[in-house]
From TrEMBL:
Biased composition (Acidic residues): 635-644
Residue intervals passing through the bilayer: none
Pumilio repeat locations: 130-165
Alphabetical list of InterPro entries matching this protein: ARM-like, ARM-type_fold, PUM3, Pumilio_RNA-bd_rpt, Znf-XS_domain
Stretches for region Disordered: 1-56, 622-645
Protein name: Zinc finger-XS domain-containing protein
Keywords: Repeat, Translation regulation
Tagged with keyword Translocase: no
GO molecular function, one term: mRNA binding
SMART domains with a match to the protein in the record: Pumilio
One of the GO BP terms on file: regulatory ncRNA-mediated gene silencing
């Protein structure tokens, strides 16, 4: 039929399939504005070609790489001046302009890193603007992660806040990355308390990752956050356990942010969960990097790699003692771990004790180790034998003396600050028993400091603390070696700030004289101190023991607390010579005989000293207290006299030094430093910040020379640096009066809001 219709010239009948439907028209026929091609399947060959094209487009010019490398080498020369280095940095940044991202992703990132380290803030801002959208990606790159660390270290407050906000939702993923975790940890250490809290909260629950407003909490405690937002404690614990377990599996345990998360978990966890977490932590803390690489099968290493292996083979416990979070974590594992955990921790420290003892936080860990571990033979082998070989270095060191003082007088508030005592008393709430083993209140208060002492370390030690101290000091022969060292260096120990405390404890025999009668060599030490004090006064520069600030107070304490030493000193140095030492610091030594609680010591000196008191040569302690009180009342008049005479002259002299360039305060367009405060943590100031610093220091109650120097600096800023950004037309005196009036108003408001009786 179809052939007949075609032959007759009639139209073709519609097919059954297309009946009632419009035939398909191409987009162009419908007026769609062009045809859309169907997506073609991408082959592996196409992907490889695209990747090669991308890498070719990112490749840097070889000549540019060579030039940048040469500039970087010149920057790092040890004899390169600051001005020349600034010029080299400016030239390198000019060559890299527009190519910051390509350079950051290449091995040449070290050049940009050096430039960011040494350039000014105005030169660092364009680098931050160019790389800010890509900082998260660069944080996971092995070349550019160090660059990101330097960028956030040198960022302004606004730029750093922008980087912290960009981390929202990515903290957990970066924490699990072996390279990205270093960037998150660097940001955590530089962040303020609210910013730290926002970073940590993302690791506590998935809700904090999804909703940014939830991380902006004013509370600083996880328990407060849970109760305030109505979260389920069990779900938070489960999520935190998952995060910590992943971190432990990857071996990323050396960072402060990880320590903080684990400590927060231990605070809210029950007893079983907390103990289980501590038992998992101990193997990681006691194992070095070398052991991990051995398990991985990396046996054949280059010479350079072997050197790195050797340096990093120390236990992780040593490396985490640089921060207070690491110290808390180590103390928790030592206090609440099992006996075999403590044994494992002690053994891993073999050969590493001196590193800990000379460290500010590490010495506290050694103190806890000496106070808790019951196996005194192991402690003697690991700790005491090492300390005996380095006694002189430890005695004169600010931190090294603490383990020695702990053995003689445990946790004395005279030698340890409140912060250090707080760290030593840190415990996991669910693991602290109601009975505090080994805690005994001191019946005798510290007379000169006015504070009571308490054994703060809570432990489950079964051995008696006094017996442990005697075994560690006497049985190990540490006490004998200490006495000999003190005899050899008695003059130097008496006159130094740190050595005098060790000398006092050795001479007295420790707390409550528990070492009295242990050895006869103690009398030799008493004679050595008395002979040093018996030397006549000379003008050759050597200060007499009774005239020195430190030694006079140390000898006075020995007279009050050790009758045997008091008798030896009287017979050797003071009998018949008290009139020579009746004034100045030496009068404190002589007067101590009348204040001694021992009647025999009083009887030794009473007849001779009473004649000096009756003649008005020696003043008793009661009269001295009254004179000091009257001197305090007249201090305001004396300070006003100084401000009119000496202060004005000293300020003029300091201003001349600043104007002539002998003292430098300006190092850039808006970069200033205070030449009179070189030991402050914050060295660089902007103009407005330095003006505020100068006003506060000039109006403070510090010594008159400090106030005079800062007033001279204020005049220098007002007259010689008017072109600095942020300098106002308001005179500095008017600004000072305005600032001080604000402080007074705030103090008055604080006093008015206080409750009566407080």
């Amino acid at each position: 039929k179809k052939r007949k219709r075609v032959a007759a010239g009639r139209p073709e009948a519609p097919s059954k399939r297309a009946k009632g439907k419009k035939p398909y028209e191409a987009p162009a026929a419908r007026g769609g504005g062009g045809s859309k091609e169907e997506p073609q399947p991408v082959t592996a060959m196409d992907e490889r070609v695209a990747a090669e094209e991308m890498s070719e487009s990112r490749k840097l010019d070889n000549n540019l790489v060579k030039e940048l490398t040469m500039l970087c080498v010149k920057m790092k020369y040890h004899n390169t001046t600051t001005i020349r280095r600034c010029r080299l940095v400016t030239e390198a940044l000019r060559k890299m302009d527009g190519k910051y991202l390509e350079i950051a992703r290449s091995p040449t990132a070290c050049v940009l890193q050096s430039c960011v380290k040494w350039c000014s803030q105005s030169e660092r801002d364009p680098v931050f603007v160019a790389l800010q959208p890509h900082l998260l990606d660069l944080s996971c790159d092995k070349y550019s992660c160090f660059l990101v660390n330097y960028i956030i270290k040198g960022a302004s407050k606004e730029q750093f806040a922008l980087f912290i906000s960009s981390l929202h939702g990515h903290v957990a993923s970066l924490l699990f990355h072996t390279i990205g975790v270093s960037v998150v940890n660097c940001a955590f250490r530089l962040a303020t308390l609210p910013q730290k809290r926002s970073l940590l909260l993302e690791l506590y629950s998935t809700e904090f990752q999804l909703f940014k407003d939830l991380t902006e909490q004013k509370s600083c405690s996880l328990l407060e956050t849970i109760s305030k937002l109505g979260l389920q404690k069990s779900s938070v614990l489960q999520h935190m356990a998952t995060v910590i377990q992943t971190v432990l599996e990857k071996g990323i345990v050396e960072y402060s942010i990880v320590h903080m998360v684990i400590l927060e978990y231990l605070i809210i966890a029950d007893k079983t969960s907390a103990l289980d977490m501590i038992h998992q932590l101990v193997p990681h803390l006691t194992r070095g990097t070398y052991a991990v690489h051995e398990l991985s099968g990396l046996n054949r290493l280059s010479t350079k790699s072997k050197e790195k292996e050797k340096r990093s083979s120390e236990p992780l416990l040593i490396r985490i003692m640089q921060t207070k979070e690491g110290l808390k974590l180590g103390l928790v594992c030592l206090k609440h771990g099992r006996e075999k955990d403590r044994k494992r921790i002690s053994k891993c420290l073999k050969g590493q004790i001196m590193k800990l003892a000379l460290n500010g936080y590490g010495c506290l860990f050694v103190i806890c180790l000496l106070s808790i571990v019951d196996n005194t033979e192991l402690v003697t082998e690991v700790v005491i034998d090492v300390l005996k070989k380095q006694l002189k270095e430890l005695i004169f060191d600010k931190n090294g003396r603490h383990p020695l003082l702990q053995l003689f007088h445990p946790l004395c508030s005279r030698y340890l600050t409140l912060g250090e005592l707080f760290y030593l008393n840190y415990n996991v709430p669910s693991l602290v028993s109601k009975v505090n083993f080994g805690s005994k209140l001191d019946d005798v208060a510290d007379k000169e400091h006015g504070g009571s002492e308490d054994t703060l370390v809570a432990s489950d030690s079964k051995e008696d603390p006094i017996k442990r101290q005697q075994e560690l000091l006497v049985k190990s022969e540490l006490y004998e070696v200490l006495i000999e060292t003190c005899i050899e260096n008695v003059g130097q120990l008496l006159r130094t700030n740190f050595g005098k405390d060790v000398l006092y404890e050795v001479a007295v025999g420790g707390k409550n004289s528990f070492l009295e009668g242990v050895t006869d060599r103690i009398h030799v030490l008493h004679n050595a101190i008395a002979c040093d004090a018996a030397r006549p006064r000379t003008d050759d520069g050597d200060e007499h023991a009774f005239d020195n600030y430190h030694s006079s107070r140390t000898i006075r304490r020995m007279i009050l607390d050790c009758p045997a030493f008091a008798a030896t000193l009287w017979k050797t140095a003071l009998e018949g010579k008290c009139k020579l030492y009746a004034d100045g610091f030496s009068s404190m030594v002589v007067g101590a005989y009348l204040e001694s609680p021992d009647s025999m010591v009083k009887d030794l000196a009473k007849s001779e000293l009473q004649l000096l008191i009756d003649g008005g040569i020696l003043k008793p302690q009661e009269h001295k207290a009254e004179e000091e009180k009257s001197a305090m009342e007249c201090s305001s008049d004396e300070s006003s006299e100084l401000s009119d005479t000496d202060t004005g002259y000293h300020a003029k002299k300091a201003y001349k030094d600043l104007k002539s360039g002998k003292l430098v305060a300006r190092f850039g367009t808006d970069r200033f430093r205070c030449p009179f405060c070189p030991e402050k943590k914050k060295l660089d100031y902007r103009y407005r910040e330095l003006v505020q610093h100068v006003i506060v220091m000039g109006a403070s109650k510090r010594p008159w020379k400090v106030r005079a120097n800062h007033r001279a600096l204020a005049k220098h800023l007002e007259t010689d640096h008017t072109d600095a950004p942020g300098s106002s037309s308001m005179p500095l005196r008017q600004a000072e009066a305005l600032y001080l009036s604000k402080i007074k108003r705030s103090q008055a408001g604080a006093r008015s809001t206080c409750k009566p009786g407080r």
